[in-house]
Design brief:
- The complex is a heterodimer of chains A (about 90) and B (about 325).
- Chain A has about 90 residues and is an alpha+beta fold.
- Helix content of chain A is about 35%, strand content about 25%.
- Chain A has a 4-stranded antiparallel beta sheet with strand order 1-4-2-3.
- The radius of gyration of chain A is 11 Å and the shape is globular.
- In chain B, helix 9 links the parallel strand 5 and strand 6.
- Chain B contains 13 helices and 10 strands.
- By secondary structure, chain B is α/β, with parallel strands linked by helices.
- An 8-stranded mixed beta sheet of chain B has the order 1-8-7-3-4-5-6-2.
- Classes of the chains: A alpha+beta (about 90), B alpha/beta (about 325).
- Chains A and B meet through helix 1 and helix 2 of A and helix 2, helix 3 and helix 4 of B.
Chain lengths: ~90, ~325
């Protein structure tokens, strides 16, 4: 299991479309992918779960991957956050 | 935190139990308990309705006009992901398998659970996503209704078999008693719940003579009607005390208060059993004039309770449209 803390840098935060991209990417890996904010920890493969995190700009989330390809999943998802979900702002 | 909600009390007695909440937005959804043996079928119904809604969305996406705004395919994409979301449907599965809610009830209940969390969000954009979830759930519910016609005959059979309710009460007897909380109960709902496990009713609307009040009285259980926003303030599994005498419900009261009400419940039962001794005393006024004590009934089956109470006959036989049509169909 590996963990990484990520600060959300896109303007709209984890809104619907970003949540969709994130949960799709997470679902493409065989390992478990969890996202936590404060006391709330959700399955990142569920768009509902990701939206429920209600993580906006500058919110800190902890990304956790566990199992097969956990390293690759961590990298790909961290890149998506860094890329501001391809929104450019 | 304890909340006290005031309304109009029905019945003199007290009920203590865990809340089962029927949410306001689901008024047009049917609510009834299924038999344990039907759980698999009911879950399959939800999944079939979900797949059918999914096909609709895919078709819509494939036939979008070229000049459609770019947000539209993205939105449809989100809807399709919601339709396949495990978080949502594992919840629906729970309401069906563990609570024996019918498919429509399970779906609307799950929506309301999630909607409450959306309402608490600070971000106005995310808060609005509740509408997407609502549309998705409504699509599935409307697909259920399409399937419904094929099931109508079977459901009618279930509704009339007292066995279903009996096995349900056996199942739940080991757990806490249940009290029903709803915005309003349709006459159809009341018919479904009439012989059911509930020990008390709470509704947001309604007066002394609402369906809820009438049926609760005929069942001899307490209710509080006109309790305004009770169905919003009460959550599933909250502990509820219904004081039909005072017209008050207490939500999650401290143990001390529950114990006090339990004591009053026992006192009431004692008083009633004392009154029962007068059952076969002739109804005669002080000056020796004989009077006939009659009972008002709701359904023909109520005559048993009326006879048990020592009634000499039936006074009013109140029939609503629903009951009439039900009776005529037999």
């Amino acid at each position: 299991m590996i963990q990484q803390t990520i600060t959300i840098s896109n303007k709209l935060g984890l809104h619907a479309r970003a949540s969709a991209k994130l949960s799709k990417l997470a679902a493409s890996f065989p390992c478990e992918v969890w996202l936590a904010r404060g006391s709330r920890r959700i399955n990142a493969k569920s768009i509902m779960g990701v939206m429920m995190l209600a993580a906006g700009l500058d919110a800190q989330v902890v990304l956790e991957t566990s199992g097969e390809q956990e390293q690759e999943a961590m990298q790909a998802i961290a890149d998506l956050f860094a890329d501001k979900f391809g929104e450019g702002e | 935190m304890t909340i006290a909600i005031h309304g109009i009390g029905v019945g003199r007695s007290i009920a203590i139990g865990r809340a089962v909440v029927i949410v306001p937005s689901s008024a047009e959804v049917e609510h009834y308990f299924i038999e344990p043996a039907e759980v698999e079928d009911e879950i399959a119904r939800v999944l079939r309705a979900r797949d059918s809604a999914m096909q609709d969305a895919q078709l819509m996406l494939a036939t979008l006009p070229k000049d459609a705004p770019s947000e539209l395919p993205a939105l449809l994409d989100v809807h399709m992901m919601l339709l396949q979301d495990e978080e949502i449907f594992s919840g629906v599965r729970y309401w069906i398998a563990d609570r024996l809610y019918n498919a429509g009830w399970a779906l609307s209940n799950q929506f309301e659970r999630l909607a409450r969390q959306f309402d608490e969000m600070e971000d106005p954009y995310l808060r609005e996503r509740k509408a997407d979830l609502e549309q998705v759930i409504e699509r599935v519910i409307s697909r259920l209704h399409v399937q419904q016609s094929q099931l109508e005959s079977r459901q009618a059979a279930v509704r009339q078999s007292g066995d279903a309710q009996k096995s349900l009460s056996d199942d739940l007897e080991q757990d806490a008693p249940l009290v029903l909380t709803a915005h309003d109960l349709s006459p159809a709902d009341m018919l479904h719940f009439r012989q059911s496990v509930f020990k008390g009713f709470v509704t947001d609307v309604g007066g002394k003579n609402s369906h809820t009040a009438i049926v609760a009285r005929s069942m001899g259980i307490p209710a509080v009607v006109g309790a305004r926003s009770a169905s919003h303030l009460v959550h599933d599994d909250d502990w509820i005390v219904i004081d039909g005498d005072a017209g008050v419900i207490l939500v999650n009261p401290p143990q001390m208060v529950i114990d006090e009400y339990r004591f009053r419940q026992r006192q009431d039962a004692l008083d009633r059993s004392r009154l029962d001794r007068l059952l076969h005393t002739p109804a005669v006024t002080l000056d020796g004039q004989k009077v006939e004590l009659l009972a008002n009934i709701e359904l023909p089956e109520d005559t048993q309770a009326a006879l048990a109470a020592g009634a000499a006959g039936v006074g009013l036989f109140r029939r609503s449209e629903e009951h009439t049509s039900e009776l005529q169909s037999h």
